[in-house]
Amino acid sequence: MEKQRRGFLTRCRCGESVVLQTSGTSKNRGRLFHVCPFRKEGDWTHAFKWTDMSMVEELKDLTDKVDIIDGASMRLHKGLKACESEIDVLTIGLQELL
Ligand SMILES: [Zn+2]
Questions:
Q1: Span from the CA of 41 to the centroid of ligand 1 (angstroms)
Q2: Residue ranges covered by each domain of the chain
């Protein structure tokens, strides 16, 4: 089987947009899934993915992105503090010249 994209499916490889449906089987009753409208039972040509599995991937990818943004924010904050200190030094130097 072709490797499935991470996170929520939006489009099947056939080009059709996937739809969100609720399982009615006794094993998975009420469980959400994204599926290609052209998919038939047992046919893996068209897209199918459990929505809870997609959500786990989406959350993992989002937390990874938040970690990256957090790191960048910390570096910016340190840079800003260094600039503020430099401005203080320059201001004192300027006042001594006046
Ligand atoms: Zn399809």
A1: 13
A2: 19-97
